[in-house]
Amino acid sequence: MSVFLERQKVRKRKAIGKWFRLVERILFSVAIILGGVALLYGLYLLVFLGPVFSVREINIEGKIVMSTMQGVIESSGVKEGENLFGINVEKVHENLKANPWISHAAVRRRLPHTIWIYVDEYDPAAVVGTKEGLSFVDHEGTIFKKVEGTDPKSLPVITGIAPEKIKEALSLLSLYEGSPFGQNWGISELHFDNAKGYSIVTEKGPVEILLGQDAYASRLDLLSRWQGVIGRKGGRITYIIANEEKRITVGYRETTNS
Question: 53-69: buried (b, 16+ CB within 10 Å) or exposed (e) per residue?
Answer without folding.
Answer: bebeebebebebebbee
